[in-house]
Hints:
The protein is of the alpha/beta class and about 475 residues long. It is about 30% helix and about 25% strand. Helix 3 runs antiparallel to helix 4.
Amino acid sequence: MSANQFDLVVLGAGPGGYQAALRGAQLGLHVACVEREPALGGTCLRIGCIPSKALLESSEKFAEARHALARHGIQTGPVELDLPAMLRHKDAVVAALTKGVEALFKKNRVTRFTGHARLAGPGRVVVENGAGATELTARHILIATGSKPAALPGVACDGERIGTSTEALSYPEVPKHLVVIGAGYIGLELGSVWRRLGAKVTVLEFLPRILPGMDGELAAEAQKLLTRQGLEFRLGARVTGATLTPGGCRVEIEGAEPVECDRVLVAVGRVPNTENLGLETVGLAPDEKGRIPVDEHFATRAPGIYAIGDVIGGPMLAHKAGEEGVACVERLVTGYGHVDYQTIPGVCYTEPEIASVGRTEEQLQAEQIAYRKGVFPFLANGRARSLGQTEGRVKVLADARTDRVLGVHILGPRAGELIAEAAAAMAFGASSEDLARVCHAHPTLAEALKEAALAVDGRALHI
Ligand code: NAD
C-alpha cells in the first residue's frame, strides 16, 4: 500500500470518528483519520461535554462551599471565586483528554491528517491545510464531521457578547446579566454554571416547558428546583432578534418587551456539518435539515461511503455517535454491528442531574402502550439524606402486560451515573420485577431505583 492508501478513512475525530478509527485499527484495518482542528476529540472534548462538565463541577463546588457546607458542620471563611484558575482547570482537563486521544491513535497506529477533508470522487478524499492538498484513497470512507450551533434569524452572533456555547465556556468575567436563548441541555447546563458564579440568568424558551423530549413531570420539577437556585425562566418566549447596544445587548421577544443584558448565549440546537464536504462528487446531497441520509447500517447511497453521529438523524449525543462509529466499522469487517436505539441514555448535568433512558410517559401515551409506573423520592433514601441532596425522584415505567421496563427517568443526585443500571437492565430486556430483585448495596443512591421498580407493583418498602 502507498503511504496515502488506506482501508478506512474517517472524516472527523470527534467521539464518533475517533472511536470508529480505533475500532477499525483493532480489527486490523489500515486507518487514517482527518481532523481540521489541531486538537483531537471534536466538539465534545474541546468545546462541549468535557469543558462544560469541568465548569459544572467547579461551579458546583463553589456553590457548595458558599451555601451547603455549613449544614455539614463545616465553617469556612469568605469563599471567593478565582475565575481564571477555574478556567485554567477546565483547559487542563480538555488538554489532557485531547492528548489522550492522540496517544490512543499512536498506540493503535491510526494515521492522523490535519486539515479540512473533502470527498473527491468514489474512494478518494482530499485533505487541505495551509501547506497544500494531500490525496488519500480508501476502500471505506466514514463521514463523522459532527455538528455546529444552530443560528437564530435576527440574532447577530459577534463571537463575544452574543455567542454560542463555545464563548460561554470562557467568559473572562462573570456576566452581570446573561440571557440564555433555549431551555435545552446547553442552556440549562451553562445557565447553571454562570448563575452559581453570581450572574443573573434569564432563560427564554419558545415552548411552554423546559427540556423538550425529556419526561414532562420531571422537567417541570427540575424547573422549580432551578428557579429556586435563581434561574429565571420565561416560557412561551420566542426570541426574534438580538443586537449589540452601547451598554451591552438587547434581546427582542415576540409580543413582549425586549430584555437588556450584558451577554447572550444562543442555545437553540445544533445543525450537521455537511457543508463543503464534496458530497456532490459521489452523487450525495444532504436532506432539508442538512443530514446525510443513510440506511440501518450507516451506508449512504454512494458505495463505500458511510456516515454516523450528528451528521445523520437521531439524538445529537456523543455516546450515540460513538456506538454508531463502532457498529459501522464492526459491520464492515465482521458482517455484524448493532446499536440499540431504545437504550441510549440522555443526561442533563444540572444540579440535581436529570437522566433518562427509553420512552417517556408522553411517548407511551402517544403510542397507546399500557404501562405501570413506580416512583420513589430521594427524600426517602438514606444515602441522599446523608449527602444532603434529597431533591428529585426515580420513575420506572413498565409494560402493563409483560412488565418489561420501557423507560426510566431520574431527577436527583448523580442521576447521570444511576441511569447506567437502568440502561443495562433494559438492554437485557429486564422486567421491573427483575430490577426489584437485584440486591443493591446499602446505603446507596441506587437503592432508589430498586424501590421505584418495587413501586411499579405497589411494593416499595420505604415509602
Ligand atoms: P436543544 O435542542 O436541547 O434545546 C434548544 C431549545 O431552544 C429548545 O427547547 C427550543 O424550543 C428552544 N428554542 C428554539 N428556538 C427558539 C427561539 N427562537 N426562542 C426561544 N427558544 C427557542 O438544543 P441545545 O441545548 O442547543 O443542545 C444542542 C444539542 O447538543 C442537543 O441535541 C443536545 O442533545 C446536545 N447536548 C447534549 C448535552 C448532554 O447530553 N448533557 C449537553 C449539551 C448539548
